[in-house]
Specification:
heterodimer; A: about 240 residues; 6-stranded mixed β-sheet; 4-stranded antiparallel β-sheet; 7 helices; B: about 425 residues; alpha+beta; two-stranded antiparallel ribbon; about 55% helix; binds adenosine-5'-triphosphate; binds magnesium ion
Chain lengths: ~240, ~425
Amino acid sequence: MTAIRCSQLNKTFTQGDQIICGLDDVSIDIEEGSFVCLSGPSGSGKTTLLNAMGGLDKPDSGEIQVGDKRVDLLGKSDLADMRLHSIGFVFQAYNLIPVLTARENIEFVMQIQGVPTAQRRDKAIAMLEEVGLADHEDRLPSQLSGGQQQRVAVARAIVSGPTLVLADEPTANLDSTSATQLIELFVSLNRERGITFVIATHDTRVMAYCPRLIRMEDGKIISDEERTGKSGELQPQPS
Amino acid sequence: MADHQPAAGILFTLAWRNLWRNHRRTLIMLIAIVIGVWAMILFSSLMAGMVDEMVRGGLRTLPGEVQIHHPDYRDDPSIANSIDAPQGALLERLNNPPVTGWAARIKVPAMISSERANRGIQLLGVDPAQEVSLGFDPTNIVEGRFLEGPDDKGLVIGRKLAERLETRLGKRVVIMSQDPDNNVADRGIRVVGIYQARLQATEELNVYGGLETLQKMLNVDNQVSEIAITGDDFRQVASWWPQIQQATGPELETVPWMELDGYLESMMKMQTSFNVIITVVIFLTLSFGLVNTLVMAVFERVREIGLMMALGMRPGWIMYQVLLESIILLGLGLLLGNLLAVATILPLEDGIDISALAKGLEMAGMGSTLYPSLRLSDMVLSTVVVLVLGLLASLLPAWRASRYNPIQALART
Ligand SMILES: Nc1ncnc2c1ncn2[C@@H]1O[C@H](COP(=O)(O)OP(=O)(O)OP(=O)(O)O)[C@@H](O)[C@H]1O
Ligand SMILES: [Mg+2]
């Protein structure tokens, strides 16, 4: 099964009188349960592609299919529902709502989904345990380290059982240890739950774990390497 | 919101915590709302107190919320235009609720003369017991006594009139009027009491004599100029005066106080429009602060709003959340403002001394004490205005927040 199918995506931005190419004829298929890295230099279009997949931004042309939905054809409310129920997001920073505690941030998504209170609380606590933050449930984001915040964000992204997680530079603000912990968390979720991960990054530590590495430049895909083995079975290698 | 309702709980939590994130700003806005609401209610209750006082003053001068006259009496208040004292169905009506008191009186223009001066007055022939039931306060007698019965042979005059006539208690004065056949009717009467009134004009105008004594002098039997009727609350008169009119019959004229005094009636109308104007003006001032507070609050949270949208919160809920903040702020402000109003205005209802201003106000028919009157209707008016207009004013910032593009909002650094 294909989790994501993009064909001939184009997107341009205008800034002043400059026309910037965000995506240039991008076509990719991503299989369900795969663990994919999008890499490339800054400005190469990784975020733009991820946003298009998540229905956060519309391409100018081309088709995107996520699961059985044509993302490029959905309206705002349907896109919001799709993000709420089927996709988990992890951003580079500011992933958490500052006035909510770690547990409340995880519950937040379930609350807008309408999950009953007791169930919500249990699930949130179980998720925090899974990401190793069981005793931090009542802390506000400002009282957590960057790595802890990212792990809370991961817990929130997967709490409602999405089949797809889109992560944009999740390790950019983390030290080496936290980054490794986070990526290993991704790997185990990918292997144990079969969640599809698409991670945009220029972090070589992250790329090292990825069986499939897609490189972009100037809005184009310049290489798409499959490496044998599952996520995490690969040895970190110099790139 | 087809398949699930926004979770009100989380939206409320978010709204509440976000409000107190910048507590100084929220507190300032809250204080502004409280003061605004309080000022609206205070102003309304002062206005209400002032108008009530004018009406009450007018009614107290010579009580009678509803009056029955000969149809020509108001054009020519002479004894020729008199009516029979109440009897039959009318008497029955007058002796039952909602009527709490009534008096049949003679009220004719007359001249009063002492050995030194004379003046035109309004001569009242009364049954003192009836006048007291209607609201005449016997403690207003500062010298001597009030009349003792309808056959009392004495005269009670105002303090100021006594001064003008250079007469005093125990002296004889002459009263002169006309009988129904336009013959001079006069009589020398002893001053047995001197009263004071809130207004000097009243003290100079009204002179009280016994009803039967004056009937004899004016040559009428059991005839009166007017029947004055009062109930519990002058504001309620509109609801019952038609019953009196019905009992009186069409040959006589029955008029409620609103129609007797066009000036008072227009004051009441003006009061209502003043209240609305002041309420709206205060509110408009408030709304600038409110909109500013919300715009700032939304602007500071662009990234979070983007995040919530990226996570799948629908634009409508974002809007609802900002409106909820506004509702909480307005609700708190209204609650505290109303409480403050009750706490500060109720103790003032016993009266505020405004004698420093009283000289000018006397012209408007007011005394030297202002009695603010706190009314539920004024509180409801300000609450509704603030809530409804406040929500309208919040719609724009709330709508703008919901229009953010999540990626641009998230990209904001
Ligand atoms: N909203 C926007 N307005 C104008 N230009 C934009 C906008 N968003 C992206 N771009 C431009 O599109 C191009 C691709 O940007 P994108 O953010 O996808 O790059 P990226 O690969 O994610 O870079 P980075 O590694 O720095 O995050 C860049 O040249 C960028 O300047
Ligand atoms: Mg990027």
